[in-house]
Amino acid sequence: MTDLELKNRGTMFIISAPSGGGKSTVLKEAMKDIDNIEHSVSVTTRPIRGQEVDGIDYYFVSEEKFKEMLDDNQFYEYVNSDFGPKYGTPRKQVDELLKSGKDVVLDLDYPGVQQLRQLAGERVKAIALLPPSLRILRDRLVNRGTDSSEVIEKRMSMAEKRVKEAEFYDYVLINDDLNTVVEQLKAIILSTRVEKRNISNLGECIKCIVEDK
Fold first, then answer.
1. Residue range 25-51, pLDDT digits in tens
2. CA-to-CA distance for 86 and 66, rounded, in angstroms?
3. What is the model's pTM?
């Protein structure tokens, strides 16, 4: 019998978490053990910081270029603030990854989830990563020592909003134990790959199985 391989159609996994929620750590650990998955690189108008590399950390563009891309419908979603840097998810790069059968991870908040769902529908899986409690989240923000008390209060105000939005997501994970939440995230990604709508060669595989009597 010929070896069968189910080919993945590619899914956009949106991971949302309040600041200090541990999203970067969870994603880094989960993606170590999963192949054919990449993190989406966003477009931004903000300047390069530190050791950031254009095309790897972000695509750094001018305000004029961002507006041109926006007018040309080149974004899946975008944050077009008049009072700060603009951010957008480039449609072409994401589509190329999906077409190659790779899953794509996107770091977005709920407005981005809404925009992507409107454009990509079932190709999107939204995952909310929550802290065990707002008290624990505050402790994490204080202990990491990178923010002033005023910034922490702003982050906590936004965090409560993010937690309440979790009811609109497809999956909800509680980041209490790192190993547990990493395994849960991996399970979501791997199980999505074998949903029949995400198997691009299902008909071919069924035919091969039936004919090998």
1. 999 999 999 999 999 999 999 999 888
2. 8
3. 0.87
